[in-house]
């Protein structure tokens, strides 16, 4: 059985002080039920890189894991403004979101660059969360699966066999991110099923069955239960609703029917 993962992507929000307050509120809520939640789910927050030291400190002893929103594929060097996997690992980061649609569309990251980052993260034993998703235009043109599966195969290409089971995928239709328009559970499940099938072709049945595929795009406390109740939806990548302790804590308690 795959465990659920509820991951919060804070994007470029919060100061160090605000981050500490949010983590303290989250902990006082989530830590209460930590043992029960830990039975079938994991929780992760991904603050902006500059807040990682403060959040790492605030999370000491908590059941919440720490993620990053991006990283460079090299370990060090003349890459102004970038951070590397060893730097992140030094603060207890265990996961890294890669290929988020804002990285693809605002910062023009392509599949090749994202693939290099995925391989670097895996080499450093940071769990990469590869984001894939079609734009509104591609969706309307009926090209969702073609776009998503191309991004998936390119993003995961060249992974060593020992790293293949350690990646995660997040299906995030671009038209649903930050728009309040989420995919219906049926729409999302259709794409997640196709992702699972493609993973099976790429890596074989056993690994495909073990990889967690998250859904992201306007996930809220009101829609999370029906999404994660679908067989191929193994959790959520949450943007806006992860910035408030009460809404994120409710999403963390998603009911799986
Ligand atoms: C995201 O940032 O990955 C995201 C899905 O954002 P939101 O939940 O705000 O749509």
Explain this structure to me?
The chain has 257 residues and is of the alpha/beta class. It has a single domain, classed as Aldolase class I (TIM Barrel), CATH 3.20.20.70. 42% of the residues lie in helices and 16% in strands. It contains 13 helices and eight strands. An eight-stranded parallel barrel has the order 1-2-3-4-5-6-7-8, surrounded by five helices. The protein is globular and about 45 Å long. The model has no long low-confidence stretch (mean pLDDT 97). Bound molecules: phosphoenolpyruvate (PEP).
DSSP helix fraction: 40-55%
Shape: globular
Q: Write down how many β-strands occur, each being a DSSP E stretch of 2 or more residues.
A: 8
Q: How do the strands of the widest beta sheet line up side by side?
A: 1-2-3-4-5-6-7-8
H/E topology pattern: EHHEHEHEHHEHHHEHHEHEH
Mean pLDDT: 97
Q: What percent of residues are in strands?
A: 15-25%
CATH topology: TIM Barrel
Question: Mind describing the biggest β-sheet?
Answer: 8 strands, parallel, barrel
Individual helix count: 13
Stretches with pLDDT under 50, minimum 5 residues: none
Q: How far apart, in Å, are the first and last alpha carbons?
A: 14 Å
Quaternary structure classification = single chain
- What is the CATH C level class, in words? Alpha Beta
- Please tell me the CATH architecture by its name: Alpha-Beta Barrel
- For the record, the count of structural domains works out to 1
Structural class: alpha/beta
Bound molecules: phosphoenolpyruvate
Whole-angstrom Rg = 17 Å
């Amino acid at each position: 059985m795959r465990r659920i993962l509820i991951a919060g992507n804070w994007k470029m929000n919060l100061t160090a002080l605000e981050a500490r307050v949010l983590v303290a509120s989250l902990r006082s809520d989530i830590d209460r039920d930590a043992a029960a939640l830990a039975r079938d789910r994991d929780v992760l927050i991904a603050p902006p890189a500059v807040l990682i030291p403060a959040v790492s400190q605030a999370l000491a002893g908590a059941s919440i894991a720490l993620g990053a929103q991006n990283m460079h594929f090299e370990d060090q060097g003349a890459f102004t403004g970038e951070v590397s996997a060893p730097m992140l690992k030094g603060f207890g980061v265990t996961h890294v979101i890669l290929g988020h649609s804002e990285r693809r569309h605002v910062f023009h990251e392509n599949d090749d660059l994202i693939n290099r980052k995925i391989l670097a993260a895996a080499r450093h034993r940071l769990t990469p969360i590869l984001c894939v998703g079609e734009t509104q235009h591609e969706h309307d043109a009926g090209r969702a699966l073609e776009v998503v599966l191309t991004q998936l195969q390119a993003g995961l290409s060249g992974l060593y066999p020992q790293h293949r089971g350690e990646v995660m995928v997040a299906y995030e239709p671009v038209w649903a991110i930050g728009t309040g328009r989420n995919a219906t559970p049926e729409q999302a499940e259709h794409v997640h099923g196709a992702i699972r099938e493609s993973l099976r072709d790429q890596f074989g049945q056993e690994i495909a069955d073990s990889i967690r595929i998250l859904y992201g795009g306007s996930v809220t406390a009101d829609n999370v239960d029906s999404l994660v109740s679908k067989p191929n939806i193994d959790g959520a990548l949450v943007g806006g609703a992860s910035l408030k302790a009460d809404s994120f804590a409710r999403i963390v308690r998603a009911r799986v029917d």
